[in-house]
Amino acid sequence: MHSMPEIPPTPPTGSPYGQQPPYPPRPPYGGVPMPSPFPPVPPKPPKKKHTTAIVLSVVGGVLAVCIGGSMVAAIAGGSDPTPEEKAAAATATDKAQPAGTTAAAPAKKKSKAASPIPTKPKAKPKVTFEVSGSAPSGVDTMYGTDSDNRQGGDSSPWSTTMTRDDSGNVSYYFLTAQLQGGGDITCKILVDGKAIATGHASGGYNICQAQIVQGWTGGWKKV
């Protein structure tokens, strides 16, 4: 009989990752674990804080504040802004402000001081002397104060005015008008346009007289 040829043994299949070390035996339950043949895995590095984002946020806030302030200054220093410009300035200021702060009010325009209303100078007090009526032959007129006698007109009608002295230095004002051969006349002394004393003369060489004095209260009255 022919003997069967011997079949060579099948070589063991190799691992694609090379020779692997044998795993250590597991310790019994509750025992001390055996050391691992592999080096320990280092821990993950801590996450970096968002420093870059914070810096960019701060820089953006500062730029927004500068832009908002420039817009407010331009609006305050120039002509009156339009509603759109006001809204844009308010939006930029609100965005630039950090929480808990209040926007600064825009500077107010200084209004021009109103020009003072000129006042009229107070009129000086006056005393007026008048002669009216008919004097065909003329009139001889005298007027003035206790210390100042003046010659008046020689016809009728006639009038003149003096600055009145209310200080008490003048005792009285007077007026006389004498007809020169006939006529009919009336003489008056007026204080600030109001007749205080009157007189009358008619015919021949008759004399018309009027006189006023200052009272204790400062007013003028007929003698």
TrEMBL record:
The keyword Membrane applies. GO terms for cellular component: plasma membrane. Residues 1-44 have a biased composition (Pro residues). Residues 144-162 have a biased composition (Polar residues). Residues 1-48, 78-163 are annotated as: Disordered. InterPro entries: MmpS, MmpS_C. Signal peptide: none annotated. Residues 88-106 have a biased composition (Low complexity). The chain crosses the membrane at residues 53-76. Its main location: membrane. Keywords: Cell membrane, Membrane, Transmembrane, Transmembrane helix. It is found in: Cell membrane. Belongs to the MmpS family. This is MmpS family membrane protein. It comes from Actinocatenispora rupis.
